[in-house]
Design brief:
Blueprint: E1 2-3, E2 5-7, E3 10-12, E4 19-23, E5 30-35, H1 39-55, H2 62-78, H3 80-91, H4 95-116, E6 122-124, E7 135-143, E8 146-150, H5 158-170, E9 173-177, H6 183-195, E10 203-205, H7 210-218, E11 224-228, H8 231-240, E12 245-249, E13 255-258, H9 264-276, E14 288-292, H10 296-308, H11 328-343, E15 347-350, E16 354-355, E17 358-359, E18 362-365, H12 372-375, E19 382-388, H13 391-399, E20 406-410, H14 414-423, E21 428-431, E22 451-452, H15 457-463, E23 465-473
Helix pairs in contact: 2-4, 2-5, 3-4, 3-6, 4-5, 5-15, 9-10
């Protein structure tokens, strides 16, 4: 099936358009093709979104926005399996994890529905200033206008809804540019919103490559860009966005620290899942595991054993734990990083093999900070296990990174846990939980080069509105 852009409710899917094949990451079979958006489509989408905001969305009451989001959640709940199967086809995500993504996506829509009715401002005490008597100050939160949402392949539904749902809840219109590798779920989502009663022009879909995304970033009628993706692209967006508001969810090399009193079974089980879910193609995937030397050997042995038990294969199979990476180029890149580390003294404890698009779950030791598998975002099923002795030592090692998205700390000592959490240069720290854990209602976003701004529905709504002050002189 060919998937094209959807602008003002109408599909742009003509045969004359340039197309791009979408292939299964697992077996390479063609599963779809997309009709690539042209510059004229971009102009149509932006102008339509701009006009629809001023004619429709700007005046839509909160309860109507909430109802649309609730209906969308109800429809998605009824069609969970259809969406899960689409994600398996286009992204190669194992079916169990695809289903979990749908469940989280339903939750995101429901959080957004609730938040749409709870966008509040504040009253400013004007008499706090000399001469402010008999005056009232109000602050309202108002929508920005047109939001550009540029989304990645790894959570094609959930991460898209982390942009679309709060934008709609806040009263904006949205231009949605999904990853070209995962267009099926994006198309299905836009059609679902139409069925839920979202007016035409509130959510416009642009199918295309990064080129059309770059044009979206620079367009003067777009008021905000929300992007999840790589650090290099994020840097380009920052350079070219101009006066727009920008939210960037970028890379990470997420650390997890196990002190000597860590609950071993909890840590081992959690970090197997945290490192290897969706072949490590997760922004907060556990990449660096720091283990106190007194428990290092025990942890490593148990970690290797549980990792070797993971089932590799067809993502359609209910028992599959590890499927393909998104394409063979990414798999080759990951394998090269493994080989480079070995050439420089690292040791493969298990895994390290590539078969087509599949990289076997890989645990590495004897690593150092100069290696890409430590310093860069590996975005593959590769994890390094590193011993440490002192608290100050491991904090310094963790913070010696350009990234700072999310970390995990395992200890029964609450004083130490809070002390370490305060010192880690991270946007988020989980205690006795892996770095890979995320709920859809907490503030999520990094520091340093891991990004700018926060997601999590309430916090995304704040980023997708602006404060407007209204002052009243009461004795006029």
């Amino acid at each position: 099936m060919r998937y094209g852009s959807i602008i003002n409710g109408q599909e742009h899917n003509e045969n004359i358009r340039e197309t791009l094949d979408v292939n299964s990451p697992y077996n390479g079979e063609k599963v779809a093709e997309i009709a690539l958006a042209q510059n004229s489509d971009l102009e149509d989408a932006v102008n339509n979104s701009f006009d629809t905001f001023h004619s429709t969305m700007k005046f839509m009451p909160a309860h109507k926005r909430a109802d649309i989001l609730r209906r969308a959640a109800d429809l998605l709940e009824k069609r969970q399996e259809d969406f899960a199967e689409a994600i398996v086809k286009e992204a190669g995500k194992p079916i169990r994890f695809s289903r979990n993504e749908i469940k989280r996506s339903i939750q995101v829509l429901r959080f957004a529905s609730e938040q749409a009715k709870n966008i509040t401002g504040e009253v400013i005490p004007m008499d706090a200033a000399i001469g402010g008597e008999n005056r009232m100050g109000l602050v309202k939160r108002i929508p920005l206008g047109v939001v550009g949402a540029i989304t990645p392949f790894n959570f094609p539904l959930n991460l898209s809804l982390h942009k679309l749902a709060p934008a709609i809840a806040a009263g904006n219109t949205v231009i949605f540019k999904p990853a070209e590798k995962t267009p099926i779920s994006a198309y299905m989502l836009v059609k679902l919103f139409q069925e839920a009663g979202l007016p035409d022009g509130v959510l416009n879909l642009l199918m295309g490559t990064g080129e059309i995304g770059a044009s979206l970033v620079t367009h003067e009628k777009v008021h905000k860009i929300s992007f999840t993706g790589s650090l290099p692209v994020g840097k380009e967006i920052m350079k070219s966005a101009g006066f727009k508001k920008v939210t960037l969810e970028l890379g990470s090399n997420s650390p997890n620290i196990l002190f000597e009193d860590a609950q071993m079974e909890t840590a081992v089980t959690g970090l197997v899942k945290g490192a290897f879910t969706f072949s490590g193609q997760v922004c907060i995937s556990a990449q660096r595991i720091f283990v106190h030397k007194t428990i290092y050997d025990q942890f490593l042995q148990e970690y290797i054993t549980k990792t070797k038990a993971l089932k590799i294969g067809d993502p359609q199979n209910e028992k599959t734990d590890i499927g393909p990476m998104i394409d063979e180029e990414e798999a080759k890149r990951a394998k090269q990083w493994i080989d480079d580390a070995v050439e420089n003294g690292a040791k493969i404890e298990t895994g390290g093999e590539r078969k087509g698009t599949i990289i076997s779950p890989t645990i590495m030791t004897d690593v150092d900070r100069t290696m890409k598998i430590i310093g860069e975002e590996v975005f593959a099923p590769i994890v390094s296990v590193i011993p440490f002795e002192q608290e100050e030592e491991v904090i310094g090692y963790v913070n010696d990174s350009k990234y700072g998205l999310q970390a995990g700390v395992f200890t029964k000592d609450i004083d130490r846990a809070m002390r370490v959490a305060d010192q880690l240069e991270m946007g988020g720290v989980w205690i006795n939980e892996t770095s890979t854990y995320r709920q859809d209602n907490h503030p999520y976003g990094g520091v340093k080069q891991s990004g700018i701004g926060k997601e999590g529905i309430k916090y995304a709504v704040e980023d997708m509105t602006e404060m407007k002050f209204i002052g009243v002189k009461l004795d006029a």
